[in-house]
Amino acid sequence: MTAPRTAPRIGPRVAPARAAAFEILLQVSTADAHGDELLRGREVDALSAQDRALTTTLVLGTLRWQLALDAQIHSLLARPDAKLAPAVQVALRLGAYQLRYLDRIPAHAAIGESVELSKRAGETFAAGMVNAVLRKLAQLPRKASAGQSLADEFAHPHWMVERWERFYGAETARAICAFDQEPAAISIRLVHPDAESSLAEEGVELAEGEFLTAARRVVKGDVVRSHAFRSGWVRIQDEGSQLVAELAGHGENILDICAAPGGKTAILAERNPAAAVTAFDVSKRRLDAMRKNLAGERIRYEVQDATAMELKAVYDLILCDVPCSGTGTIGRNPEIRFRIDEQEIVRQHERQVRILARSLEGLVPGGRLLYSTCSLEPEENEAVVAEVLARKSDWAKVLLEDEVPRLEREGALHARGGAMLRTSALQEDGLRTLPGAHLCDGFFAVLIVRR
Hints:
Helix content: 40-55%
Number of helices: 20
Radius of gyration: 23 Å
Number of strands: 13
Strand content: 5-15%
CATH topology of the largest domain: Rossmann fold
CATH architecture of the largest domain: 3-Layer(aba) Sandwich
CATH superfamily of the largest domain: Vaccinia Virus protein VP39
Shape: globular
């Protein structure tokens, strides 16, 4: 993935934060790049704290509201169906986001620098149009139109919101959409006894996690620049992801399938200090990054295509956290909403069925497998498990509710977290965390045992 260019290439008349945001948004628009990853790049890290914060706000805010911004922009074009060059489209979106959603940005700065960005990107002839459209947009009222659909109100694809309304009901669908449009909380895992006090000394303010005693939400401060983070005393990891690994439990010979980027693998190793832990992933590059990030852990790494692997029945614990549409993570990965469609969910289902079926073959009798996704879509969750188990009589689901007392005995859950798991996150089909109902990404998990 190409890193964003530095501000000087854009030009001195553009503020560093807008220059960096423009470059990142252009990469997201034209390549298979992820805004969240690019915001952690070296160029952004080199900015001042104030500029880093503004860059993050501009990138993620523009992506969250992109569908609504595009509708407003195209309604003001001389030809509303015109296809714009990527750099022009990004300059317009960036300017429109500032005008429509950021009260403290002067209109002249948002408009003038968006015009300059389009020029510096080689779209000189479009600069006048960018200026005209943004000036018109600045004169429009910000209040949403009455009678807007839920999808339009929260800038989500109609097909996606209609699915959530059908599966979860209108109230829950609204909560998910609203959660997706707010800045995603930074969650961390404490992996050193002095981590919390060290962060406090550097002005990082933390709040208790939703479920886990080792999880914290960052309320204030820069974790990434802290001594605790640089020393490996904390890891940035969504609490839903942490919870999945905690629910997997214990074993002596453990396999983590599709393991990268490695947060769950690290928890498996942490909770099973005497176990042999193996991490599979199809990407050697991602496994190499895991090996570097988890240096010192007793983990064996192996490049494997999970859809084609042939396992011997030697593992007593397998974590099968499969690739998915990621609709439970739109709050921190807003571009997902316009990168997938319903056909992608069908393709994911077919791949997930292959992975789960092959993974189950690796269990010894009595062994446990935790199947999980960060998707909200039933086709990737319940439907995958049902289809695979219908063909495999030697395997059966077990209630994840029975794991809660274990986690409480081990001190992994705080009291409120245990109660919340029982009342709102654990259902007959397994674990389901929902954005808006829980302060974490949306995860699904089912525990399967070989008889």
